[in-house]
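Q: Convert this sequence to structure tokens.
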Amino acid sequence: MNMKQTESHNIHDLVLAAERLEKNLAGACSVTRLSLQPEFSRVLDRLQQKGQNVPARMRRLERALHDEALEARFDNMPI
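A:
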């Protein structure tokens, strides 16, 4: 496999991973969503680094997960 085919294969794997995570996040409980958030963000970042367009729906989901993570941190802060 040449370099271009390998890169294409890697991008395809990242797209599949993003879609799998997106599916797992749909309807998942908050604990599961929080646990999957870092991996989802990493996959989307890697796609973007490789010059791929990340679908807007995935970016919206990433923002929602980030907001949920921040909210969870503040919910657990002592007053």
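The chain has a mean pLDDT of 90.
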